Amino acid sequence: QVQLVESGGGLVQPGGSLRLSCAASGLTFNTYGMGWFRQAPGKEREFVGTINWRGVSTIYADSVKGRFTISRDNAKKMVYLQMNSLKPEDTAVYYCKATWGTSVYWGQGTQVTVSS
After folding, report:
1. CA gap 102, 14 in Å, rounded
2. Strand-pair partners of 4
3. What is the pLDDT of residues 55-103, one digit of tens each?
4. 1: Cβ–Cβ under 8 A, 6 or more apart, which residues?
5. Of 92, 7, 16, 104, residue with least CA distance to 48
6. Where are the alpha helices (DSSP H) in the chain?
7. Of 14, 56, 65, 114, whose CB has the highest number of CB atoms within 10 Å?
8. CB of 6 within 8 A of CB of 92?
């Protein structure tokens, strides 16, 4: 059974930082591309960024480029999202996603709230 479990969310002030983690189990982690998405209240889920299976290639949404960094540790089956210079508009539930061919799995999400 595949499981993706996000953690690290919380309340942070504007300009602050958070590091989200996603722990994977039940899949051959080092073959999957991993991504982060987010969904704000009343909005569609949107792409944040992705990292390839080797961890050498990343792509980011324009809205987070230069502020967010995705990394992964294949030995630990973990993927991370380092978020710096957070803005109120970054408030959302953040989800990690694993993709390999037509196999797609989602985590349950972790809430990030940026507010003073």
Report:
1. 38
2. 24
3. 999 999 999 999 999 999 999 999 999 999 999 999 999 999 999 999 9
4. 26
5. 92
6. none
7. 114
8. no
Which residue is listed with tokens 């949404």? 61
Closest C-alpha among 27, 77, 85 to residue 55: 77
Cβ(112)–Cβ(12) below 8 Å = yes
In the chain, which ranges are E strands? 3-7, 10-12, 18-25, 33-39, 46-51, 58-60, 68-73, 78-83, 92-100, 103-106, 110-114
pLDDT in tens, 2-44: 999 999 999 999 999 999 999 999 999 999 999 999 999 999 9
Report yes or no: 38 and 46 within 8 Å, Cβ to Cβ: yes
- Structure tokens belonging to residue 99: 């993709």
